[in-house]
Specification:
By secondary structure, this protein is an alpha+beta fold. The protein folds into 3 domains: 34 residues, no CATH class; 132 residues, no CATH class; 56 residues. 39% of the residues lie in helices and 22% in strands. The chain contains 6 helices and 7 strands. Strands 1, 2, 3, 4, 5, 6 and 7 form a 7-stranded mixed β-sheet that branches. Strand 4 and strand 5 form a beta hairpin. The longest helix is centred in the last third of the chain and has 32 residues.
């Protein structure tokens, strides 16, 4: 005689299968499973204020990845603090033989002058991003602290981005925008607007009537020029 099937076990099995199905749909649908990515570490000696996890990584204006992690590293021997930044590069965004993925081996792109630096993403919000380009005249400076990921050399921000951001009157800009918005809102909701539109309509109507009268007078004078000489105009 067969044992009675436990309904609870069946329910758990069905729910588990549905959860796995939903996860598979999300992963396959977003393409994350087949996305080819490479992670690299960059070091910035100065402040990275404004750089956040998820910030874009660009190459000559083209998005190729994003920032995955930002941390502090204290070197007790040298007594210095560096800022390792982990970036993730989407390999599929780069076509051709040379790729960021090759940097772990022959260092071709570093030899060609590939360098990363901080750039302003938005002057209004103060957000930063990482931008890559080729600077063969700039010597590659490598720290060699974190060995988990290949390292990409960076360039110092010049001029100091922090000073630039501090000089931008963000509060004043926000206040001006708020005042402008309030003024527009007050103007739109003002009770004087309907009255002004009514007066404008009357003015246009009166102007149209006056132009019509001038046109009639002109036609009359063209047809009866002798009336102007005899002083009969308007009689």
């Amino acid at each position: 005689m067969s044992k009675k099937v436990n309904k609870t076990v069946i329910g758990v099995f069905v729910i588990g299968a549905l959860v796995l199905l939903m996860v598979a749909i999300v992963v396959f649908g977003s393409g994350e499973l087949f996305k080819r990515t490479n992670k690299f570490v960059l070091y910035f000696d100065g402040s990275v204020k404004g750089l956040a996890i998820g910030a874009p990584v660009m190459f000559r204006g083209v998005s190729i990845g994003n920032v995955k992690d930002i941390s502090l590293f204290y070197d007790s021997k040298a007594g210095t603090i560096t800022l390792p930044v982990i970036v993730e590069i989407d390999q599929d965004r780069i076509k051709g033989a040379l790729s960021f993925g090759e940097l772990g081996g022959d260092k071709k792109m570093i030899a060609l002058g590939l360098r990363g630096k901080l750039e302003v993403q938005s002057f209004l919000t103060g957000q930063l991003m990482i931008s890559f380009d080729f600077y063969p005249e700039k010597k590659a400076k490598l720290h060699g602290i974190v060995n988990k990921y290949p390292e990409l050399p960076t360039l110092p921000a010049s001029p100091d981005i922090t000073e630039i951001m501090n000089e931008i009157p963000i509060k004043e800009i926000a206040k001006n925008l708020e005042a402008t918005a309030q003024g527009v809102n007050k103007l739109v909701n003002s009770s004087e607007i309907p009255r002004s539109l009514y007066d404008l309509q009357n003015t246009l109507q009166e102007t149209t009537e006056a132009m019509h009268s001038v046109s009639l007078l002109t036609d009359y004078l063209e047809q009866h020029p002798e009336s102007l000489l005899k002083g009969k105009v308007g009689q």
